[in-house]
Amino acid sequence: MNLLKVAICGGGRTGHLNAILFKQLADVQVSLLTHNPEVIEQHARQTPMQALLPDGSSLSARLDRVTADARSAVEDADLVIITVPAHVRQQTLQAIAPHLSASKPVYVGAIPGFCGFDWLAEATLPERPNVVIWGMKDVPHTAFELNPGRSIKMGGGKSQLYVATHARESQASRHQLHAILTRLYGPCVTLLEHYLEITLTPGNPIMHSSVIYGLIGPYGQWHRKIFPQRMCWWTECPELGAYFLERMDEESQALCAVISQRLGIDLSSVKSLKQEIVEAYGEQIRDTSSMLSILRTNQAYNDILAPMVPAADNRAGYVIERESRAFNEDVAYGLVLLVEMARRFEIKVPHIEEVLQWSVAYMHGLRDSALDYFPRQWPHTASAAA
Ligand SMILES: NC(=O)c1ccc[n+]([C@@H]2O[C@H](COP(=O)([O-])OP(=O)(O)OC[C@H]3O[C@@H](n4cnc5c(N)ncnc54)[C@H](OP(=O)(O)O)[C@@H]3O)[C@@H](O)[C@H]2O)c1
């Protein structure tokens, strides 16, 4: 079998886990681009990296290269996987762009591929016809408790992995990508027809923002108050948050239906959030009767803490962290994109807009957002129409 050279960008939880899994396979070379000196140091000391599996067993790996130097991480890569959060992807793509091979196809993708990664990669890697842009709908496994350069815990895995390519990619490139990802992840990889199937799948952007709004927004019981202790995202989800989530889910589905109809593309794979969660977690949810009960009784969601930091000025207690990923990634790159897509199709999404406006005010405004790369003419160009 040909040697497959994989470069993983981002030495966080997702980056560590995927790197270790790939190194279990024959003829796969893995390099890791990271700015974390601890990961680089552990590699230099020849410390093996371990994935701690849910059944108590573990997998061990030694990566081929671990570096903060973009050139040495990606210069000979066949496959590049961006695993940094959506608000950091542009900076990562800009760092690697000059060093990608120009003499062979290079498959550049994001895991997860939400927030319009296809548009970002197209804008950041112009005039690179050998680059094939792709994204995976979700992470293949959850990953948590990172001990940098040493170990990562693997959570539940997805039975199916859905991958989409930028609309510009040829059938031959799509088939080749499918073959590469099947080699890495097994026969569970399915190619989607349109990248919008990823972009419009509801997830963290509406989940996190609605719960925060329900907690500390203008009608929330914790509005302008300090939490005595850290709260769990889902088991302590407020009724108001679940109400807004359900409304935002409906609006997101309505947007998807209109885009599907007006662009003449099949987006039937995009399910409501409620359906996605029930199908993904099945028996782990004790009560599927409402959004609130689904969130509160899903065992897989137990004990996941909301992003909180100690209150300022030595006051006892906690506040929701303004600099958390729930804002910088989910609001600025997820919600902003949904609202802009709705605006271009003249569709009303009042609940999503209400939560977006409040969230942006809480963040003291947007520094950067998905609007920095969302194509200005979309949906009016052939390249952006899928
Ligand atoms: N972990 C999961 O189970 C899970 C589940 C669902 C979705 N996701 C999604 O997967 C993506 C990666 O998540 P993760 O859990 O792997 O993240 P993570 O453990 O926090 O790692 C993210 C990596 O991105 C890089 N980075 C650079 N600037 C950053 C910044 N300002 N803020 C945060 N990270 C920065 C860092 O890499 P270096 O220091 O190595 O340069 C960091 O290690 C996110 O989009 C997340 O929403 C993760």
Structure description:
- The chain has 14 helices and 14 strands.
- It has 386 residues and is an alpha/beta fold.
- The chain has 2 domains: 4-193, Rossmann fold; 200-372, N-(1-d-carboxylethyl)-l-norvaline Dehydrogenase, domain 2 (Orthogonal Bundle), CATH 1.10.1040.
- α5 (117-124) links the parallel β7 and β8 (131-136).
- α8 crosses α14 (350-362).
- The model has no long low-confidence stretch (mean pLDDT 96).
- Bound molecules: NADP nicotinamide-adenine-dinucleotide phosphate.
- Residues 10-14, 34-36, 83-86, 88, 112, 139, 142-144, 146 line the site of NADP nicotinamide-adenine-dinucleotide phosphate.
- The site of NADP nicotinamide-adenine-dinucleotide phosphate (NAP) has 19 residues, from α1 and β9.
